[in-house]
Amino acid sequence: MALKIYNSLTRQKEVFRPLNPPYVGMYVCGPTVSGESHLGHARPYITFDIVYRYLTHLGFKVRYVRNITDAGHFEEEGRQAEDKISKKAILEKVEPMELVHKYTSLFHWAMRQFNTIEPNIEPTATGHIVEQIQMIEQILEAGYGYEVNGSVYFDVNKYAASHNYGELSGRVVEDLLETTRVLEGQDEKRNKADFALWKAAPPQHIMRWKSPWGEGFPGWHIECSAMATKYLGPRFDIHGGGMDLLFPHHESEIAQSTICNHVSPVKYWIHNNIITINGKKMGKSYNNVIKLTEMFSGNHPLLSQGFHPMTIRFFILQTHYRSTLDFSNEALLAAEKGLRRLWEAYESLQNLSPDPADGPGDPDLELKINGLLSALDGFMEDDFNTAKVLANFFEVIPTINAIKDLVLPASILSSQTLLRMKEVFHEYLENILGLQSLTAEEGKLGEVLELLVSIRKEAKAKKDFVTSDRIRNELSRIGIDMKDEKNGQMSWRMH
């Protein structure tokens, strides 16, 4: 079965055929480092970590580029523009680049907690001002840009006359002219739908660079076009990001890059859906943002506790990336419980040994298990459906637990199937889904608990039931269940 990807450009699933196999170029819009990352930011980077991992699993050689927006990421409000980084730097009384370093480091730290693989290249907008200016000059030379009072704008109407502006987002230029807000000072634009390639810097604007049009700073859209072109060429395979970037960001990228490079820049556009809270998009405008540090610590009114980064990763992977994901504390608690159950089964599976009798003692069960495992590749090849992959794993878990608890003999399955289960669980859970069981702190706790298991076993062997019961009861009091298994072993789990 061939990998199929839903292409936002054509609005349908397409068989993935890279431009230059086995090499794949993938560009993902990175964060604006003007503040702490929140839960909504986690979804795209976990989503495209899965895309990167699975393409690598299939044997592709992927060049993964993810940018850092550190040049202000302004929002036009008439002649003025809000520079998010400069505004936050003034509030925190630090230099803008000091702020950039702080929040870039915090973003990288959060990504490590989620076990995301680092991109191959992580360019910054401020490190590519020259490339952005060169691209703007090309657009002006081609006649699709114009300069007014030190600012440069892209002429959307002229582009739309010979190109399909709106092909990605499904918007029509005439509708944009009707619906675009009339902002103070927009009279310097030829059309309301035009967007800025370069903005003249007002006196109070901190981040500014010299250009042929005077001191200023680049527009938001041009940075991605410049960096993607530099590192992946005029046309590359995959461009990813959140669905909220479809318009105007990605639509504008297509227009800019097409004029400069004379070809549509991307073959497959992939967009993940949003995270909502009580049906509303998570965002600062709704005052419902939960920072990742708050997620990990539990220091937020909507959270009953802190949540392990792997719980959050698992929570995100339980839903297909193109579906809306609604956040709730209860959903995270359920995800935590589900991940622990899955990981405990995985660890139990690694400890199972085939029976010398070498089954299968139950051919129907053997067929069912192999069918569930065989379906996993098909789910991933159908637009990276991690939700169905996880659902199949949970159908396998009861069999693992039944063998572990001696309810079923190990000979119920053949040694080949048992070995296949171990290999598939390892490859998918750790390498493709990128899940992990415990943090370093929990790992140390596990070592302590294994020591307590050993002490309790010795106590029971000596018929010292007072000590044995005390260990079990005290652990239960602090939220850890220690269970006597039917095979004479002991297990523990947090609740």
CATH topology of the largest domain: the name is Rossmann fold
The share of residues in extended strands comes to: 15-25%
Ends apart, CA distance between termini: 41 Å
Tally the structural domains: 3
Arithmetic mean pLDDT? 88
Q: What structural class do the secondary elements suggest?
A: alpha/beta
The major beta sheet can be summarized as: 4 strands, parallel
Structure annotation, total helices = 16
**For the record, what is the CATH homologous superfamily label of the largest domain?**
HUPs
Uncertain segments are 73-81, 178-185
Q: Give the overall shape, derived from the CA principal axes.
A: elongated
CATH class of the largest domain: Alpha Beta
Number of strands: 17
> How helix-rich are the residues, as a percent range?
40-55%
Structural write-up:
The chain has helices spanning 39-57, 84-92, 96-113, 129-142, 156-162, 173-179, 220-232, 246-261, 292-297, 309-317, 329-351, 363-381, 386-404, 415-432, 440-461, 465-477; strands spanning 4-7, 12-15, 23-28, 61-66, 75-77, 80-82, 145-148, 151-154, 195-200, 216-218, 236-242, 266-272, 275-277, 280-281, 325-327, 480-484, 490-494. The protein has 3 domains: 16-272, 3-Layer(aba) Sandwich (Rossmann fold), CATH 3.40.50; 280-432, Isoleucyl-tRNA Synthetase, Domain 1 (Orthogonal Bundle), CATH 1.10.730; 441-494, no CATH class. Helix 4 (129-142) crosses helix 7, helix 11 packs across helix 13 (386-404) and helix 15 (440-461) runs antiparallel to helix 16 (465-477). It has 16 helices and 17 strands. Helices cover 47% and strands 15% of the residues. By secondary structure, the protein is α/β, with parallel strands linked by helices. The relative contact order is 0.11. Helix 8 links the parallel strand 11 (236-242) and strand 12. The two termini are 41 Å apart.
